[in-house]
Amino acid sequence: QPQLVESGGGSVQDGGSLRLSCAASPGTDKRWCMGWFRQAPGKERERVATIYTITGNTGYANSVKGRFTISQDEARDTVYLQMNTLKVEDNAMYYCAGKRRPGNCSDPAAIDYWGKGTLVTISS
To answer: Rounded to an integer, what distance in angstroms lies between the CA atom of residue 88 and that of residue 9?
Structure first.
């Protein structure tokens, strides 16, 4: 059964860094894109970063541009999110996401697979 498993969340101080990882189980068809979303308490889930699996092209939310970097390993089975210069407003549950077919990788409703999430906590 397709599965995405996140790791790497934790607690850091304002200005710190974290690296999230997302491993896709065999059979997870994410040939179009993978990405990271986040959801803070009381807020909607929002796209953070996307990587298009075949081309390696990337996209970011304006709020994280220049601070976060999404990447994938050569086998395209693991996706990473390097988060630098973290801010209190980055506090959220971070979810890995995958999509099989061409479409909008920024829309949570269009995502085919979700991980269970990893919590990122930044303290001031």
So the answer is: 14
